Every structure is written in C-alpha cells, then in structure tokens.
C-alpha cells in the first residue's frame, strides 16, 4: 500500500466537496491513505506565534479543519489528521500548547523562514541575491536541527528545501548532512522524501542524493510524501520516490496513528514497481 501524509487543503474551501476531490485524486494515483497537514500558521488559534513580518494569514479556524478531517475519518474514509508546524525559535512552549490541543495522528515540523526571510517564497526569491548562500544554508540547517531537538514533531519535512530555487553553496555539505542525520536519529524522528522539489525550480527530490544516503546510513526512518496543494499532486511521482528510497537501501516507511509510529516494509511495493 501507499500513503501520502503531506497534503494541504489551503487552496480551496475547507469543505467536504473539496476534501472529496483529494480522496478521488488519491484513488486515481493508487494512494491508499491520505493525511492532511495544514500549515499551523493559517489557524486563528496560532495567531501571534510567528512574527508579524512573516506576513502569514491566520484566518482558518483549526476547530473547523479538525472537525472536517475527523468526520471523514469517522465515516470510514482512509484519512489521517495531521498538521505542518513551522519551527519558531523561542516559541516552543506556545507551539507545544497548540499541538496538544488537538488529536493529531502526526505532526510535521518544517523550516520555511530564516528570521523574517521566507526563502522558499517566489515573492522573496530576489533576496537570495542580497545574501551569502553559504550563510543561508548554515542558518537553515541550524534552525532545522534546533527544530528536531525540540521533539515537538514526528516527521521532519523536506530536509533541504533551502535548495528550492537552485542556489547552492560552494563546497561540500556532507558535514551538515551528517550532523543533521545524527540529530534526527537521536530524536527518533522520521525524515521526509518529498516529491515537491520536482515541481519547483530546483527540479529534484528532497533530500539530495548524498543527504538521503547519509540519513539512510545513519538509520533515520523515512516517509514518502508529495506536499500536494492541489488534488492532482497527491502521490505525485511516487514511483520515482520509491525507487529513490530503494537505491539508498531504505526498506521500510513510517505510518502514524494518534502519534504512534509503525514501520511498513516497502519490498512488495518495490517489487511491483520494478516489474511494471
Ligand atoms: Zn513545507
Ligand atoms: Zn507543506
């Protein structure tokens, strides 16, 4: 079976019809279970956690979102209730208070901002030309590993999303990769192989091949997700991602229910892909 736990409803109305379109797309993509993971910063209940100059709109009622997904679950649809939470340094207690308010199946941790800079936002891409690329990568990995150390999360999203526009530092990132992998392993977190990068200017999976190799060799558990914001992107390029996992000898993937992790072997899945 396949599952996709990184899916956003934010580009449509938060109603049953919109949710149903994602379920239908999942069925067409051969994805058996779908996990929704709205950005926590979109919820009124988190207003004030992230700096005002990040310009994030807190206009959705988290209660409504949770109820919508919960109802689909109660009606027997193969869905999970998740959330994607941006790490906010110094706001750990507020993040924890918010997370503990709802019955999530899993919590995804991510980094999209270096101080006030939304480095992966198309409207802020020009700022890459005013920054040291080396420093941006350093700062990103510091935030990412700080986030992992909080243990607030179950899954760490798109591990090298910092490469989104294709800006790369000179020299090797191997030491950063190793340090990051060690921290994820110690925190018993799972890392995401995300196909979203294929749909971005960088045009490749997150994490990069060498990073994936280091994470796998360190024994960090993986999950494969799409980060879909539209129904048609659910399960996007999963065959490629499964083959990628196999290349780095990843033999099992994480699933979650009520924040408990289980590991599912992907052998039979791969056998199917390879025989196609
Ligand atoms: Zn994200
Ligand atoms: Zn996302």
Give an overview of the whole structure:
Helix 4 runs parallel beside helix 5 (174-186), helix 5 (174-186) runs parallel beside helix 6 (209-218) and helix 7 crosses helix 8. The mean pLDDT is 95. The chain has one domain (3-275): Metal-dependent hydrolases (TIM Barrel, Alpha-Beta Barrel). The longest helix has 17 residues, at 133-149. By secondary structure, the chain is α/β, with parallel strands linked by helices. The chain starts with a strand and ends with a helix. It contains 8 helices and 9 strands. A 7-stranded parallel beta sheet has the order 1-2-3-4-5-6-7. The protein has a two-stranded antiparallel ribbon with strand order 8-9. The structure holds zinc ion (2 copies). One zinc ion (ZN) binds next to loops.
Could you list some keywords that capture this structure?
single chain; binds zinc ion; TIM Barrel; 8 helices; 9 strands; 276 residues; alpha/beta; seven-stranded parallel sheet; two-stranded antiparallel sheet
Uncertain runs with pLDDT below 50, 5 residues or more? none
- Structurally, the number of domains stands at 1
Q: In the CATH hierarchy, what is the class?
A: Alpha Beta
Give the amount of beta strand, in percent.
15-25%
CATH third-tier fold name? TIM Barrel
- Assembly form of the protein: single chain
Structural class: alpha/beta
Q: How would you sum up the major sheet?
A: 7 strands, parallel
What's the architecture in CATH terms? Answer: Alpha-Beta Barrel
Query: Ions, cofactors, ligands: which are bound?
Result: zinc ion
- CATH superfamily, please? Metal-dependent hydrolases
| Overall mean pLDDT | 95
């Amino acid at each position: 079976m396949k599952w996709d736990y990184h899916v956003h409803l934010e580009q449509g109305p938060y109603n049953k019809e919109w949710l149903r379109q994602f379920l239908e797309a999942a069925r067409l993509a051969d994805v058996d279970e779908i996990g929704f993971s709205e950005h926590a910063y979109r919820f009124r209940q988190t207003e004030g956690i992230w700096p005002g100059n990040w310009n994030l709109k807190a206009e959705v009622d988290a209660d409504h979102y949770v109820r919508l997904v919960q109802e689909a679950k109660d009606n027997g649809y193969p869905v999970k209730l998740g959330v994607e939470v941006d790490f906010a340094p110094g706001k750990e207690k507020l993040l924890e208070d918010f997370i503990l308010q709802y019955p999530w199946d899993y919590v995804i941790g991510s980094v999209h901002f270096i101080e006030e800079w939304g480095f992966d936002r198309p409207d802020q891409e020009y700022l890459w030309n005013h920054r040291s690329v080396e420093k941006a990568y350093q700062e990103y990995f510091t935030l990412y590993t700080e986030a992992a150390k909080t243990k607030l999360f179950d899954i760490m999203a798109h591990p090298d999303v910092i490469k989104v526009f294709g800006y790369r530092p000179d020299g090797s990132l191997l030491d950063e990769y190793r340090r990051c992998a060690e921290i994820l392993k110690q925190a018993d977190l799972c890392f995401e192989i995300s196909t979203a990068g294929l749909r971005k200017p960088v045009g490749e999976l997150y994490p990069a091949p060498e990073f994936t190799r280091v994470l796998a060799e360190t024994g960090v558990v993986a999950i494969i997700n799409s980060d879909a914001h539209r129904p048609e992107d659910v399960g996007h390029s999963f065959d490629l991602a499964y083959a990628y996992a196999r290349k780095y000898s990843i033999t099992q993937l994480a699933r979650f229910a009520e924040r408990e992790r289980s590991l599912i072997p992907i052998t039979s899945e791969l056998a199917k892909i390879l025989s196609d």
